[in-house]
């Protein structure tokens, strides 16, 4: 049954570049064509490339390929203020993006916030089903001035020792 | 990761300010490291002066420097993973003092506590905390 599905999906892919059809339901669409395992893949050749294409959920592709990528023009620079919405408590956490760990499907980012005079850091994994969405409250490097200057570091761990720099970043943020 | 000689801030109103860990009460562990939700035996290193009303009373809890007390760790600087995949760390180590029956000595908590306390069975502390992260 799986082989028949693969054959039908690969047939659709040959003739059209639109989304592949799921033969058993009209409401379900595969936004990414299923990559059936090739002979080379079965031997283990090109396994990591295959995994980096298929392990990421289609809903999270935007996060991995755009928001937390290395060179995309719309990527989030460190120093941005984000809110991460999750399925488990605490259901949302806002903070300054101080680190991005780029590992393809295992990409993660760390947010730092000061809650009731106590600094808290939370590391979220982008591909986790628990992470629902990420909202950008303020992008770093926006304009000139003290608040909008581009951060000259990829990892902003120096913010742990200077609360005044944290307040400078969050001074422009409302709420 | 709190073990012997690790210092923790006390975030309740029991009177103690800083405690030093002496022993981690954790079964089935060879290393003496404690995390959030673990009970420790600690020595009070710094305490607030005991108010006159408490000195006069016989039932009030009098916490002074040099006391050996029990405490539960509520925040750690060391990052710990959560079951949902997140990794959380705080800026300091904090504890809440307890008596031998695992009841809190203080009546209020100031500052956030870790949400792992809820899963480890410290519901009373979680309900008193102003923020659970």
TrEMBL record, chain A:
This is Ribosomal protein L19. GO terms for molecular function: structural constituent of ribosome. Pfam families: Ribosomal_L19. Belongs to the bacterial ribosomal protein bL19 family. The keyword Methyltransferase does not apply. The keyword tRNA-binding does not apply. It comes from the Eukaryota. Keywords: Ribonucleoprotein, Ribosomal protein. GO terms for cellular component: mitochondrial large ribosomal subunit. One of its GO terms (biological process) is translation.
From TrEMBL, chain B:
Keywords: Ribonucleoprotein, Ribosomal protein. GO terms for biological process: translation. GO terms for molecular function: large ribosomal subunit rRNA binding; structural constituent of ribosome. It comes from the Eukaryota. GO terms for cellular component: mitochondrial large ribosomal subunit. InterPro entries: Ribosomal_uL14, Ribosomal_uL14_bac-type, Ribosomal_uL14_CS, Ribosomal_uL14_sf. Belongs to the universal ribosomal protein uL14 family. PANTHER family: 50S/60S RIBOSOMAL PROTEIN L14/L23 (PTHR11761), LARGE RIBOSOMAL SUBUNIT PROTEIN UL14M (PTHR11761:SF3). Component of the mitochondrial ribosome (mitoribosome), a dedicated translation machinery responsible for the synthesis of mitochondrial genome-encoded proteins, including at least some of the essential transmembrane subunits of the mitochondrial respiratory chain. The mitoribosomes are attached to the mitochondrial inner membrane and translation products are cotranslationally integrated into the membrane. This is Large ribosomal subunit protein uL14m. It comes from Schizopora paradoxa.
């Amino acid at each position: 049954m799986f082989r028949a599905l693969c054959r039908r999906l690969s047939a659709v892919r040959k003739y059209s570049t639109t989304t592949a059809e799921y033969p058993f339901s009209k409401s379900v669409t595969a936004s990414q064509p299923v990559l059936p395992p090739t002979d080379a893949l079965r031997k283990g050749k090109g396994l990591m490339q295959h995994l980096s294409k298929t392990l990421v959920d289609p809903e999270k592709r935007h996060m991995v390929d755009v928001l937390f990528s290395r060179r995309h023009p719309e990527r989030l620079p460190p120093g941005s203020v984000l809110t991460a919405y999750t399925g488990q408590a605490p259901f949302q956490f806002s903070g300054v993006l101080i680190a991005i760990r780029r590992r393809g499907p295992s990409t993660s980012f760390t947010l730092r916030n000061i809650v009731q005079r106590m600094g808290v850091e939370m590391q979220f994994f982008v591909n986790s089903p628990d992470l629902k969405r990420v909202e950008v409250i303020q992008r770093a490097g926006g304009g000139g001035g003290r608040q909008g200057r581009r951060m000259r570091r990829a990892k902003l761990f120096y913010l742990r020792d200077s609360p005044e720099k944290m307040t400078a970043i969050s001074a422009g943020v409302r709420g | 990761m709190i073990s012997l000689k690790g210092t923790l801030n006390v975030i309740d109103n029991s009177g103690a300010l800083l405690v030093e860990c002496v022993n981690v009460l954790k079964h089935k562990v060879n290393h003496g490291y404690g995390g959030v939700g673990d009970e420790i035996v600690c020595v009070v290193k710094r305490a607030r002066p005991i108010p006159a009303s408490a000195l006069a009373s016989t039932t009030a809890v009098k916490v002074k420097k040099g006391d050996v007390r029990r405490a539960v760790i509520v925040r750690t600087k060391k990052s710990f993973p959560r079951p949902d995949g997140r990794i959380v760390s705080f800026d300091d180590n904090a504890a809440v003092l307890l008596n031998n029956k695992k009841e809190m000595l203080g009546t209020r908590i100031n500052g956030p506590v870790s949400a792992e306390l809820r899963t480890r069975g410290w519901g009373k502390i979680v309900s008193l905390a102003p923020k659970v992260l």
